[in-house]
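Per your request, structure below.
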């Protein structure tokens, strides 16, 4: 028996990294998953992998900054799988710069994806979730940067911190439907966002992603890095029945990076 048998989940930013690991784990635990991402190619691969292992998955490519794309994701999940139980707002992007050098574009893209994108998805899901005894689950993905601040990440820290107020508001407004809404705040997870900027050479939306080797080495002196698969497990917990009475909380999953 899986922990998410009969459940239907939508996961954003699921083409790679943590979102992909969430989707594979959820499907293994019995959920039907609607995966979404701005990158359609690798998203299709995730669906193939899940179906190849006997799981249920559908892809709905989309950009979380566009409300109409978010509505399409939720509508498609309900159409294909009959309902919507779990929403994981995982899409995110870093766009680092010191305060005095940060451009409007860097600020906007980061806040639009992490904060507005999460709001867009939750509002789009309301049609399916605001029902008596719905027992839904919403998990928003933040970062320890939102709890402690981080040099070079004023945009990201503000957006991730904003998710906490957003989450507590959802928890209060929708608690009466049995819906829980929580935040997972990660520390260091090994994905393209945390690999060496100098050697990775991955450009996303016009700028390289990753972190400078010097900063990366300093963090790794203090904490054990998580794999995306390690990072997915607390999300599964919050999505499961075990967490039915946990809501409006920030779960710090940082291997001690912040405590
Ligand atoms: N990696 C870490 O150490 C770390 C730490 C703290 C928080 N996080 C958060 O975890 C989440 C997942 O990050 P990751 O490390 O797996 O990074 P990742 O880059 O591997 O995955 C993020 C996914 O989001 C997608 N995405 C970006 N913009 C989008 C948009 N506008 N619409 C839809 N999808 C979009 C990307 O295409 C990508 O597939 C993010 O919210 C990130 O901020 C990561």
């Amino acid at each position: 028996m899986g922990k998410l048998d009969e459940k239907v989940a939508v996961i954003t930013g699921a083409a790679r990294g943590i979102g992909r690991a969430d989707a594979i784990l959820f499907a293994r635990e019995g959920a039907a998953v609607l995966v979404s991402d701005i990158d359609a190619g690798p998203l299709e691969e995730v669906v193939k992998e899940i179906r190849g292992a006997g799981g249920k998955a559908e892809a709905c490519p989309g950009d979380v900054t566009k409300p109409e794309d978010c509505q399409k994701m939720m509508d498609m999940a309900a159409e294909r799988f009959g309902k919507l139980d779990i929403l994981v707002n995982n899409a995110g992007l870093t766009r680092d710069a010191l305060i005095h050098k940060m451009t409007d574009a860097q600020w906007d893209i980061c806040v639009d994806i992490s904060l507005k994108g999460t709001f867009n998805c939750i509002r789009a899901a309301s049609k399916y979730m605001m029902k008596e005894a719905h027992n839904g689950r919403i998990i928003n993905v933040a970062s320890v940067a939102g709890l402690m601040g981080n040099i070079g990440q004023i945009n990201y820290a503000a957006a991730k911190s904003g998710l906490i107020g957003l989450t507590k508001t959802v928890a209060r407004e929708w608690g009466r439907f049995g819906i829980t809404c929580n935040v997972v705040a990660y520390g260091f997870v090994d994905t393209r966002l945390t690999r060496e900027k100098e050697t990775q050479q991955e450009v996303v939306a016009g700028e390289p992603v990753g972190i400078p080797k010097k900063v990366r080495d300093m963090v790794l002196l203090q904490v054990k890095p998580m794999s995306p698969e390690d990072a997915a497990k607390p999300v599964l917990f919050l999505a499961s029945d075990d967490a039915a009475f946990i809501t409006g909380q920030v779960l710090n999953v940082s291997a001690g990076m912040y405590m």
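The mean pLDDT is 97.

Regards,
D.
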